[in-house]
Amino acid sequence: MKAIVVGATGAVGRDLVELLCHDPRYTEVRTFTRRELGIENPKIHPYVVDFERTEGWHDLVQGDVIFSALGTSKKQAGSKEAQYHIDHDYQMMFAEFAKKNGVRHMVLVSSAGADASSAFFYMKLKGIIERDMEALGFEGLTIVQPPSLIRKHAKRPLETISVKARQLYG
């Protein structure tokens, strides 16, 4: 099988790429990133692309399954609008290219509590993304809703503490 990974430079995406490279079911892992991936493996076919200029690479979004672990924080993005653009618009763009190019299955990393009608921006954003992915009509759609992401090198003390507490008591 051939996998496509969007968000491969993030914490979840990097781990996912490594898992796919070690899984004998996958013969190729195409990554689409805005900067160098920094992982060497003969299965990886890395594409560093400009997400705002899709001509010349959108037809490369081909394979059997697309995994999207793309996402950012409001702080990193600079505003809610910029976060929405990265988290929603970019993921939808890749999903639409994949669907058009014959990819049959989509795996989306979302969040527990995702709800398009939530009063909380992040939960609402994740819910909107889930809803819009479902509307694309992939033959298979898997939505993963982790309660918290376990990042190896978390820089936020409260994140590390909350993850450890969930591991102990969850």
What would you note in describing this structure?
Helix content is 39%, strand content 18%. The protein has 170 residues and is of the alpha/beta class. The chain has a six-stranded parallel beta sheet with strand order 3-2-1-4-5-6, sandwiched between helices. α3 (80-100) packs parallel to α4 (121-136). The model is unreliable at 156-170 (pLDDT under 50).
Short description:
The chain is an alpha/beta fold. It contains five helices and six strands, in the order βαβββααβαβα. A six-stranded parallel β-sheet has the order 3-2-1-4-5-6, with helices on both faces.
Would you spell out the secondary-structure blueprint of this structure?
Blueprint: E1 2-6, H1 11-22, E2 28-33, E3 44-48, E4 65-68, H2 74-77, H3 80-100, E5 105-109, H4 121-136, E6 140-144, H5 157-169
Parallel strand pairs: 1-2, 1-4, 2-3, 4-5, 5-6
Helix pairs in contact: 3-4
Question: Please, how many helices?
Answer: 5
Beta percentage is: 15-25%
Order of helices and strands: EHEEEHHEHEH
Approximate helicity band = 25-40%
Return Rg in Å: 16 Å
Termini separation comes to 34 Å
Largest sheet: 6 strands, parallel
Shape: globular
Number of strands: 6
Show unreliable segments.
156-170
Strand order of the largest sheet: 3-2-1-4-5-6
Short descriptors:
disordered C terminus, single chain, alpha/beta
